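Q: what does this look like with pyridoxal-5'-phosphate bound?
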Amino acid sequence: MTPIGNPLEALSLDELRTRTSWKWTTYPNDVLPLWVAEMDVPLAPPIAESLYRAIANGDTGYVSGTELVEAFQGFASRRWGWDTVSADRTLVVVDVMNGFVQLLDAITEPGDPVIVNPPVYTPFYSYTEHHGRRIVEAPLGEDCRIDLEALDRAFAAARASSPRAVYLLANPHNPTGVVHTVAELTSVLELAATHGVTVVSNEIHAPIVYSDAQFTPLLSLPGAERAFSLTSASKAWNLAGAKAAVLVGGSDTADDLAAIPAWTSRIASHLGVIAQTAAYNEGDEWLDALLSGLERNRNLLGELLTEHLPEVGYLRPQGTYMAWLDCRNVITSDRDEGATAGSFGAMAGAAKLFYDDGKVAVTSGHVFGPGGTGRVRINFGTSSSILTTALRQMGDAARSAALS
Ligand SMILES: Cc1ncc(COP(=O)(O)O)c(C=O)c1O
């Protein structure tokens, strides 16, 4: 069999510009879009074949069956040695964030607190608040890792205000790409047990972890009996439009899961379930090729920053195809006007400079909450040529701003 080539180098910019997804339709055609978490890859062949088969067969009805859960069990066991995903405590949900609010409905009441670690994926705020729950912040430390003392304080404050509190953990973390260690996750579980907080681990980026880190599924650790994990094949195999995700409960969550209505599992997309089942069952080889390509881009990004934007701090991500860039030394003071938090498209500071003058759309750090201002998140799930052009343009923009 011919080895799979680097999927990130398979498509030209002209081909990508024919896409109609969010990434490719938000900005004008002269802008390179390196923002929302879509990758510039073709579908993995086994996934494409599963979808072609379904279309040829008119197999486009409601979702049914246990294939996705079984496929995820197999993947979790092969990749992470996680052998305790119980089909009895695993639900198919429409996507990760909607699965999260459905879980909130089951285990909390309106007004209850949800603890998050900003800077963090913006929808952690928007979904929670739109759902009538209250955010309690436990900011990451200076090193962008979980600050256990801040978490302890936030857990205590949350529980002082309500008998029910949820901690929404991102593992790996978005936007920093940090992969939490066993020691960190163990401490998180200990704090949660001390304060009586339910931990929900968002593990959507878990398959994308590089050779210098190791992903640990939260539920594989002792002390996670009352915790939950939410995941999907949508990031690693670029299937955000093929809606499906899985919610996995620890060994002591059967009652909580029973409170989630059965119709929840029918609102996932049948095509999404077909595609994601193929990803987990037959997508390992493609994923490995992707991971090599992403790891190359992670290094290339470091080199390009040294060459074009030496004043920018680069936190080399351990996982995800996002990189968190500290742009506080890029001169941007006049660019903050009109900045509004809470929306992916809101441009401020360096992101606005890179957009206005560099024609590159990255995500402005301020939308990820406290600790985000002055940073940007860049999506390097693209070809080396797009990444190289983007970094050159961003560097030129920063240099002209410094001169003016
Ligand atoms: C941490 C995290 N959670 C959730 C999502 C979105 O997942 P879904 O579309 O399944 O809600 C993303 C997308 O980038 C993400 O990065």
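Residues 37, 95-97, 121, 170, 174, 202, 204, 232, 234-235, 240, 245 surround pyridoxal-5'-phosphate (CB under 6 Å). The chain has two domains: 7-42+284-403, 62-282.
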